[in-house]
Amino acid sequence: MVGTPKPPIKIGILGASTIAREAMAPAFKRESRVNVVAIASRSARSAQALAHTLNVSRWGPGFDWILADPDIDAVYISLPPSLNAHWTLKSLQSNKHVLCEKPIALNVNDVARIRACARAVSRVVREVDMWRHHPQIRRLHDLWRRGALGQLRSIEAEFTFNLSEDDRFRWSRSLGGGVLNDLGPYCLGAVLEFCPGILDILEARFSWAGNGPNQVETAMEATLAAAGGITARIFCSFVDTPRQRLVLRGADDSVTLNQPWAVGIDSEQPLPVHLVRGARTERFGEFDPYLMMLGDFAERINGGDLGSFALERCERRVALAAELQLCARRSQGAT
User: Fold this and answer.
1) What is the pLDDT of residues 81-110, one digit of tens each?
2) Facing residues of 273 across strands?
3) For 9-128, which CATH superfamily applies?
4) Is 102 one of the annotated active-site residues of the chain?
5) Exposed / middle / buried, residue 2 (Cβ in 10 Å: 0-12, 13-18, 19+)
6) Among 62, 99, 277, 297, whose CB has the most other CB atoms within 10 angstroms?
């Protein structure tokens, strides 16, 4: 017997960022299980522009009016990183489900507070992790889980691009900018995905721009060790040629993903996505991982799946990021 379809989840958007306009808006348009009903931004002009794109009649400055609306079921938060934990907690306290851009928090204590609050109010909280929902990652998981690579020996995760100087929050320490908070979640997330145990930091080196309270890291290179003799190497940079790569090497085989992180965004000229396994290449068609992620968020809300594994994963990643930064500052004598 087929159950009665549930009405679309009413969503309010907090923040009309570039990623909200260019990546999430197309997904919101296509996912029938959600309905954007209100848009708020610190700038009324930005809110109006995104509202026009999504054909939403309610928009305006400030965020509290969305949280005060009992008819809104969930919020999508797309703000500078320093604001994410605060508005995630306020949204939960207003009984909203939350989908928040990464990083959802800048320290472990805030992640723990979010986990506790979500559990207390029985609401779903997810950090944006669209890359995990692409079929290439599911295929990689399948190969890894069934031992097709043999015993895992090493992981390499790389994400770089050349950041423009007018990209305000990424260059601002007070707003939570820096490569560790922006590109780190992808590479660190992948390493933790395939090395679920304790990681020891063998080396960490950062490059910085600015001085004192305005200093942000522009590049990070790290080597870590995991149980079983696994070595993980990470490289992220704001000041390099654009490239991305994820490589898993095992005793019997290896796998390389050429577009592990930013897939489905550049719709005008999408790069081909393929998985190279030894001499074999598996090619993937065009998928929108943001749409897949949004569908998963809706499914968890409708199914009452409040599983905390996603926030536990965030907590581990945020803790590792803090350890890497401390290690680098100590070894390089930075302040």
Assistant:
1) 999 999 999 999 999 999 999 999 999 999
2) 284
3) NAD(P)-binding Rossmann-like Domain (3.40.50.720)
4) yes
5) exposed
6) 99
